[in-house]
Structure formats: C-alpha cells, structure tokens
Design goal:
The complex is a heterodimer.
Chain A: H1 3-8, H2 10-16, H3 21-36, H4 41-48, E1 56-72, E2 79-94, E3 99-105, H5 109-123, H6 128-155, E4 158-159
Antiparallel strand pairs in A: 1-2, 2-3
Helix pairs in contact in A: 2-3, 3-5, 4-5, 4-6, 5-6
Chain B: H1 9-24, H2 34-40, H3 42-52, E1 54-55, H4 57-66, H5 71-82, E2 87-90, E3 100-105, E4 116-117, H6 155-161, H7 191-199, H8 203-214, E5 223-237, E6 244-262, E7 270-279, H9 283-295, H10 312-318, H11 321-329, H12 336-366
Antiparallel strand pairs in B: 3-5, 5-6, 6-7
The chains are: A alpha+beta, B alpha+beta.
Chain lengths: 169, 367
Amino acid sequence: MKLSNIIDNLESASSVDPVTQHNDQQAQRKAAMAVLAHAEAGEIAARLRDLTLPAHQDLRAPENGLVMLRGRAGGDGAPFNLGEATASRAAVRLASGEVGFGYTLGRDGEKARLIALCDALVQSRDFGGAVERDVIAPLREQLMARRTQAAAETAATKVDFYTMVRGEG
Amino acid sequence: MYVAVKGGERAIENAHRLLANARRGDQNVPEVTLDQISEQLGLAVDRVMSEGSLYDRELASLAIKQARGDLIEAIFLVRAFRATMPRFGASEPVDTGAMRVQRRVSSTFKDIPGGQILGPTFDYTHRLLDPSLAEGFVPEAPAMAEASTAPTPRVTDILGRDGLIESSPQAEDGASVGDLTREPLNFPADRDLRLQNLARGDEGFLLAMGYSTQRGYGRNHPFAGEIRFGEVEVEFAAEDVGFAVPLGSIELTECQMVNQFKGSATEAPCFTRGYGLAFGQSERKTMSMALVDRALRARELGEEVRAPAQDEEFVMSHSDNVQATGFVEHLKLPHYVDFQSELGLLRKLRREFADAQAPDAMKEAAE
C-alpha cells in the first residue's frame, strides 16, 4: 500500500488491511509515524504536554546516523544508491511494557525520541485513543492544510500549451 | 610526489585567522544566517546536497557559509562530514511516480495526463537583471487554483503501455546494489554504479559531457520526455521495528530522456531512455545526467563507443569534483623535494647540452 494513501485515508487504509489485529495496529503505527516525521520536535512536544503521560524510559538513547537513499533506474527499474541523508533514531519503553520506535530524517535526536514515545503510546490500550486524538490528528490536519495550500499554488501554474498553425501567430 | 614538510605553524594559524575575517567581511554588514542561505539561496543548497551526496539542508547551508560560497569547497566539507557518521542502512527505493509534484513538464506531449505544471521556474523569464530585488522586495502572494486529484503518471509509463519505449531494467532477485562509497570502482561498471556516480558528479562536468553528445560526440537524439520536481516520501525497513518506517520526505528532481530507437530482427524498434535523479530542484543537473546515462549505455545497446561521453572509465573517473579538486589543488602544496630533484636533473641536462654545443661553437669561431 502506498504511504501517501495511508496518510490521506487513514480509516480506509486501516479497513483495507488484512483484518488481523497485528496488521491493523501496524498500519496505525505507520500512519502515526508518517505524520510525526513531518512535524517539528517542538510541535510534537507541545501536543504531548496536553496529555498526562505514563512513566517511560529510553530504551535506546537518541542517536544520529545516515540512511542511504535509493532511487530506481528509469523511476521504476532496478534500485541504485542516490546519496545519503542524515537520520535520527531512538526507542522508548512505557512502564506498562510497550516499546516504541522513532525514526526521522535530520539530526534532531529529541524528535526521534518524541516519535518513539508516541509510537509506544499508540500501542497502549490506555493511551492509544488519546495520543491519536490530541497529538496525531491535529498534526495530520496541519500537514494536510500545508499540502493543500502548496497543491493550490502549484495548480495555478498549470498550462495548456497549444500549437499554432504556421503564419497564424 | 608530495613529501611531508614541517614548520610554518604560526603562519598557518594566522592565515586561518585572516580567512575567518575575510569570510565575515565588513562587520558593519549583518551576518548571513543559515536560514537565509537555506531559504534564499535554495538552489545552491540543493547542489551542495546533491554533489555532497548528503541530504541535509542545514548542514549544506553551514558548508556554504563556511566555504564563503565556494560550492565545491562546501561539497568537500559535506563529504568529509558524512564520513564521520555511522550508517543505519539503506532506504526503500523512493517512488517518483507518487511524487507530490511541484513542477512537471514534457517536451514530447502537450496533453499529458495530470497536465504540464510550470511550478517555480526560471523558464520564460527574460533574464534581465531586476533592480527591485536589490532591497526590500516583497513578492506578491502566489496565485491559487483548484488542485486536481488526477494522478500524474510518468510519461515513460504512458509510452511504455504501447511498447513504444524500452522498459526499465529490473533487478535480479537478491541482487545487491553497488555502492561506490564502500567498494572501489572497477570497469566495466554496471548501471547502478554509473547512476550513483552521475548523481554525485559535478554539474558542470556533466553539463559539458551532455552538451558534447548534442553537438555530435556520441549523438543520441534526445527529447526531454519528462522533468518533474517535488516531494517524495522516504521509508526505511528498520529491523528492530519489523516494518518499513516512514522517515519523512525529501525533494527530488527527475528527468526522463527519450532517445532514438533501437530494434533488431527479433525486437520491434522502440525508443531508448536515459535517466537523471538528484536532490532538490536540480534541473540542469538531472537533464545532463540523463544525457550522459544514455550515452554510457552505448556498449549495452551495441553502439560504437567513440566519444568521451560514451566512455564510462573516462566519465566516471573524472565526474567527481572532490576527487578532481583534490588532485588539481594538491599541486599548490609544497613539492620542494620533488622539485629540487627535477631541478638537479635539468641542470645536469643543460650542462651536457652546453658541453655538446661547445666544440661546434669553437670550430665556428675559428672559421
């Protein structure tokens, strides 16, 4: 399933998925990560402040590194290494046992930690609903608004070329 | 040969101090910020990310600032930085067909599905210097129009449906992806390595090579089938998580060149293709890359290899501006010992030459 599809149509994406609990939760976690990766650390932290967070600890302290980005020859052919990007990762465990992972482009380790925390909360029976409602949904809405604005600006530059018969112009 | 020399520490220290001042320039003029570089010199940042082979706008902006705007020096700094970082792994290949397109033009079809979208482009500007930009310019807000939800398929996919263009080569199951940052380059090199080399290659070098094919040195009759620029999502198959995690998005430019056809007794003629892909909005780079990629496929397509752009060893060994500048610029480092031995040899040769001339000269004088 295309990631962009999951972001745009979370509910339908979840229902299309095989009905097993596991895949359902996986799709939900992925959809949450897709939104969080586009937010700033400060924005996630501000939203999380509205929740009463359960006890949690770092399972893997935030770490910076690289990911080799791949493209495909011709856009749809065999993969090749295009170049690297900076990335950060972290893992967080809730006192109740859920382990969350945070991965993001860029060197903001704190952002990776906050994503990991959100990922753990998404999996939690007690906090899953709250983190979706108070953190992820508003950030998704904000992301969609930015994309809609950009798409409208782009659409205004769409042209209809027409060829003229020689001598007409 | 370069032989290490000692001494000059104080001069070096003071030279770097002077450099720091020269970099800052007149301190009555406000200092340029990384955000200003990233936002207002965005295409320079894109180039440093592409050729530095590291997607990170902030680092590329810092490199440009540190290098005083010398982009090759900035690329060098970025390459040196990346060498200090551990690698988590490789991303899933990005899907440029699902790009959130900000610009997309085709010079082959005027009515492509999804339309021709100009986006932010220098095309059709008059290339006249604009004095109003000198200070305090506030642009008019962008125009808006209703965005279509129609997909924007790649032009090559449309041609491919009718078999009019060759399909992209697919990877064999379990084939590893060549990485020239890990393995030394050997020739002949496969297309994955060639594309990686071109993607981080010097824009000016690739431009000249691509241009040379247009002028007849390995002509391949190109059309810009499609150029698209926009945002694509990146996913990373993280082992600890157990599924491909979204990392966020990057901006890419992609160019699909459609080139003269090939065919054989057993295969119907079809267009061939060259491919360009680079970080950010890098149109000239990706167009040049696609021209050179197609030229380098000469061997595979049974064309005679006669021009420099078709010679993969020549292209791939000279495309990297960090390697090139390293070897050219090392000439300014002390070569005193080396030069002394050359000087000694030259003096000896001149003495021998003079000795050989001497009897003749005496004979002439006698006559």
